[in-house]
Amino acid sequence: MGQYLTFSLGGRLCGIPALSAQDVLRGQLAVTRVPGAAPEVAGIMNLRGRIVTAVCLRRKFGLPGGQGMAIVVGHGGELYSLMVDAVHEVLSLDDARREEPPATLEPLWRDAVKSVARLDDGLLAILDATAMIGELHGNGKTHENMPDSR
Amino acid sequence: MDDLLQEFLSETAENLGKLDRDLVTLERNPEDAELIRRIFRVVHTVKGNCGFLGLPRLERVAHHAENVLGRCREGKIKPTQATVTLILESLDRIKSITGGLATAGAEPEGDDSALIERLDSVFNGTAMPEKKTEVSALAVDAAEDAASKSLRVRVETLEKLMASVSELVLARNQLLQASRTNTAGDIQASLHRLSQTVTEVQEGVTAARLQPVGHLFERLPRMLRDVATALGKKIALEVEGAETEIDRQMLDMIRDPLTHLVRNAAGHGIEMPEDRAAYDKPAEGKIKLKAWHDGGKVVIQVSDDGRGLDARLIGEKAVARGLVTPERLREMDEKQILQFIYMPGFSTAVEVTALSGRGVGLDVVLGNVRRIGGTVEMDSKPGRGVSFTLRLPLTLSIVQSLVIAAGKERYALPQAGVREIIRYTKKGPSRVEDAGGTPVLRLRDTLLPLAHLGRIAGNSGGEGVIVVLGDGATAFGLVADGVLGTEEIVVKPLPSALCHLRLFSGSAILGDGGVVTVLDAGGLAEHIGAAGFSLAAAQTAPKQKQVVEDKTQLLLFRAGSGAACAVPLPMVYRLEEFDAAKIEQAGGRRVVQYRGRLMPLVETSPLKGGPRQQVIVLNDRDKLLGLMVDSILDIVEEKIALQDAGAQAGVLGSAIVRGQAVDIIDAIHLLGAGQKKGGVWANT
User: Could A34 and B513 be called an inter-chain contact, meaning their C-beta atoms sit closer than 8 Å?
Assistant: First the structure.
């Protein structure tokens, strides 16, 4: 059994392992745009005195429209705020219901989707948050040794 | 050489440097028990490390010297001049062995038995009458007194304290912001109290972290001695203001840059004694280290009385390294050429050929100093020496910043690099001018390139103010909508997904809780290509580019029997007509009196001649040059495709303008050449 935090993104149902989510942010998020940043990086924001990177998942997957909520995940000693349409619930899922992602997956999604699960009312795409964040650092150039951006 | 050995060498050098001074003091105050203890400890440490690293020769010398010092410590031997001399001799031996160790990686061969014998005879009391020395009570008192006045604090503790103070400052700023909308009296009072306390704590903690900059200077005499000895030079080090205090963290950050600068001065700046004689300078060169406080900044200056920088050699080197074309070099003035020493890797090339040298890792020096919000100024007088002036903030953590607006966005800009803020205007003594389609700032009598924040940030930011940034060589103006205010900010590193952006040095949370990015002056300068060559970039690059790309305004003219020529209109200052009789010969070239001075004249091809001479006056900064032509044809604006570029000096290339082949004149080249000597391009 695994627990997944589900959210919607451009009409699709997605999920990440619930344990990797540290926080869910609601309401208007004050994000400061950073010129020159990767397109999916919406900017930086103040999360209780910490400066965190805001990543717009819709933009990452080439979906139109704005954001409503955000999920905070940690990676390499830093926090990231993943901006999504709406966060739903924590879902318990039998591992047997998880399948390999279909080969017909759109290229933008291919690296991010770890597996899919067939639910009663549709498909749930389980995303790999680490891989998505890792991509922000360019071709394998991660900055693990950067000081904690507290 | 392995790290351990390297570390041992630098540590030993540092310790021995202190010992020299201590021993000289001991000679004068032989009763100073604390001093003897300290000297003993250092020699003991050296000995211990030698044994650990397997350096038998060093260990033996250190061991026997330690024995003698042990006796001194016990009060059994009085540190007389003879004893101190012997110890100094031992230290010199240790230094020479470590010196050999540093260059060869192994202990040099040598016989120390005579020295050891003398040490032993002192140790055994055979050479000296044994005298019981009483440790004076006064000396102990003084030592204890000193101990109670200073306090050892764990750096970690201070670091944590500093972090909480940073947060306190933040909280205060937030409260201040809130108070603007709420004026209840008690909030005001407590806020006032908080504000005062925070300031006090901040000052206290900052003071606790301050250390005399002299710590940095300590190992320099020894290093200098090594360099001087190795090169056969005579160099004296003069230190002034060693007691000037600076933040401990800052001390660490500038250790390497400073060592670099001093080593450079010794290695490349100071000449050999015989060469110095030729310049009527004393055989012994002088390197001066000076530190002082100046308006909330620490200034450290490294100057030497050596040969200075040779712009000609540096220029040649830059051409050889492909950093600049010979044509472009000719357009640059000395100050611009000297900036090449800051180019990465530039120094190494000079080093290898052992030419004028200078600049080993100066790019690193500049980078390090800029990274901590400091600036570097260089002043060179050929034959007289060079000085580098480092201006550093007192502390790294809290930075006084401007908050500036571009469009609807805010950016923080550390005040350290801000020279002045002026209104964006196209009139008056300081104004924005058009230089071939690129706006530049005329600030009194200098032209500065402009960076447009709104455009860089890709927002709707307009032109309200210009913040003039940078130091002498790399000054530029930053155009923004306006300055919203100043605020003390705690700069935090950008998240790792963004730390590759060179435009920003970090991020910060403002008093109102909003997040801003902190602009980096160096990154901005790089962005507009102002780094190093501000004026060259502002003046030549855009114009040349314009000739090659885009639509270009050209002045067409006919010179002699040749084909039609054109010169980029932005370079044209005026069109004049001179009486042919007024054209004079001076120093083998043609000149004409123009606006109170002599303006050189060049012709592009033999002229028909006549009573009146048409002249196109070109200008670049303060340079004027007259281009003699037969007739002005037209002004055209056209998209041109340059061909045969660079085939002929003074000609950018040829292009088809209105169906006709036209030579495009390289005005910048002409201006540069025209100023130098008479042998100008042309008479073909």
Answer: no
With a CB cutoff of 8 Å and minimum separation 6, the contacts of B520 are B502, B503, B504, B505
A9–chain B Cβ distance below 8 A for any pair: no
Contacts of A49 in chain B (CB under 8 A): 167, 170, 509
Buried-state track B225-253, b at ≥16 Cβ within 10 A, e below 16: bbbbeeeebbbebebebeebbbbbbbbeb
Closest CB from B492, B494, B497 relative to A137? B497
Closest approach of chain B CAs to the CA of A118, in angstroms? 34
User: What 3 state SS string does B616-680 have?
Assistant: EEEEECCEEEEEEECEEEEEEEEECCCECCCCECCEEEEEEECCEEEEEECHHHHHHHHHHCCCC
Compute how many other C-beta atoms are within 10 angstroms of the C-beta atom of residue B683.
10
Place A145 in a pLDDT band, splitting at 50, 70 and 90.
Answer: very low
3-state secondary structure B363-424: HHHHHHHHHCCCEEEEEEECCCEEEEEEEEECCCCEEEEEEEEECCEEEEEEHHHEEEEEEC
The least confident of A25-34, B106-115, B475-484 is B106-115
Chain A: residue nearest B457 by CA? A35
Residue B296 to residue B393: CA distance in whole angstroms: 7
Pairs across A and B, CB distance < 8 A: 84
pLDDT tens figures, B92-125: 888 888 888 877 777 888 888 888 888 888 888 7
Averaged pLDDT for residues B495-513: 86
CA distance A136 to chain B (A): 6
How far apart are the C-alpha atoms of B359 and B347, rounded to whole Å? 5
Mean pLDDT, rounded, of chain A: 82
The tens digit of pLDDT for each residue in B36-53 reads 888 888 888 888 788 777
A35 at the B interface (CB within 8 A)?
yes
Helix (H, G, I), strand (E, B) or coil at B111: coil
Could you identify the residue written with the tokens 């000079």?
Answer: B350
Residue B662 one-letter amino acid: V
Q: Is B56 left (phi over 0), alpha (psi -120 to 50) or beta?
A: alpha
The structure tokens 């101190």 sit at B84
User: Can you give the pLDDT at residue B605?
Assistant: 67
- φ, ψ of residue B558 to 5 degrees: the values are -115, 130
Q: How far apart are CA B533 and CA A13, in angstroms?
A: 54
How far is residue B460's CA from residue B409's CA, in Å, rounded to a whole number? 9
Pairing verdict, β B409-414 and B515-519: parallel
Among B243, B235, B247, which residue's Cα sits nearest to residue B218? B243
Residue B402: the pLDDT is 92
Q: Between chains, do B498 and A41 touch, taking CB under 8 Å as contact?
A: yes
Query: What is the SS3 assignment for A88?
Result: strand
- Residues 6 or more apart whose CB falls under 8 angstroms from that of B488 comprise B169, B173, B398, B399, B400, B401
Which of B432-436, B483-487, B611-615 tops mean pLDDT? B483-487
Judged by a CB distance cut-off of 8 A, whether residue A137 touches chain B is yes
Residue B683: is its pLDDT beyond 60?
A: no
Q: Which residues contact B340 (CB under 8 A, 6 or more apart)?
A: B314, B315, B317, B318, B323, B324, B346, B532
The answer to whether the CB of A82 falls within 8 A of the CB of A6 is: no
Question: Please, which residues bridge with residue A2 across strands?
Answer: A93
Q: What share of chain B has pLDDT > 90, as a percent?
A: 7
SS3 content of chain B, % helix, strand, coil (to 5): 45, 30, 30
Q: Do A34 and B458 touch (CB under 8 A)?
A: no
Q: How far is B180 from chain A (nearest CA, A)?
A: 21
Three-state DSSP class for residue B583: coil
The answer to whether B494 contacts A149, with C-beta atoms less than 8 Å apart, is yes
Q: B509 to chain A: which residues are within 8 Å by CB?
A: 46, 49, 51
* Rounded distance between C-alpha atoms, residue B559 and residue B564, angstroms: 7
Q: Considering only alpha carbons, which residue of chain A is nearest residue B501?
A: A36
